[in-house]
Amino acid sequence: MTETTSQIEEPETTYYSGILYHGAKEPFNFDPKYDYNTATTDGSWTLGPGLYSLHTEEEAKKYSHVRQGHYDYSTHKKPPTHVYSVYANDCKFLDFRNEEGGNTFTPPNIIKKWKSYFEKRFNQEKEEKPDLGPEIAHVEGKNGIGRRIINRAYIDRDKKEKYLKYLEEIEDKSNIHLRKMLGTQPIINSPSGFNGNNYGVQWGNWFADFVVKDLGYDGIIYIEGTEYEKGDASTFIIYNLDSIKVSEKPIQ
Known about the structure:
Elements: E1 12-23, E2 51-54, H1 57-68, E3 83-95, H2 108-128, E4 136-140, E5 146-150, H3 152-170, H4 178-182, H5 204-214, E6 219-223, E7 234-238, E8 244-246
Parallel strand pairs: 3-6
Antiparallel strand pairs: 1-3, 2-7, 3-8, 4-5, 6-7
């Protein structure tokens, strides 16, 4: 999926009531108290963890098939389909779509708010666990043969430090797409040393909380692209799971 271009516009507020469709990798039991902090994703979290839903059942089927990873393009033999109805009742979305069929840029005021929120959560994290130990630990193995273990917590914190500096670099700019703001696409020549490359997954939970608690939205609407054929590329990412109901079983 590639980032789309747009004119400088403000994202709009869109209220949506009706049915959306979610294509899943495998059957699941929906729970509005689902803890994304302990979850593994069956796809990309380019805009933070949430229920990624689509306008049409057909597009959701494509998503379900591709996420299972064994769609046969030569024979068009499809795996089982796991598509759920999502019932939205006047959900409030921050709508980034523009009239040209792309996405509008992220307003600097939202970037500034997000930077402030991220910094607050990051400082809390550092206060709770100030000492992460060395970047690389040396562990004695069998027969006196040692081995080196990379301290992932140390690496993750270093990425967050660089990302915070990156947010300081872009907070006054008016040509930053949302995925570029979140660092879920490559960042080139940043003085901070931050290079994106999908690091945003590490703070995606924070971004979802930010949209709901600080901005006051149930989710966002963004042009994410379709899976392998042309179709409606509008993706409704729902972060506030209390605002929806999901069918107990996949659509047959």
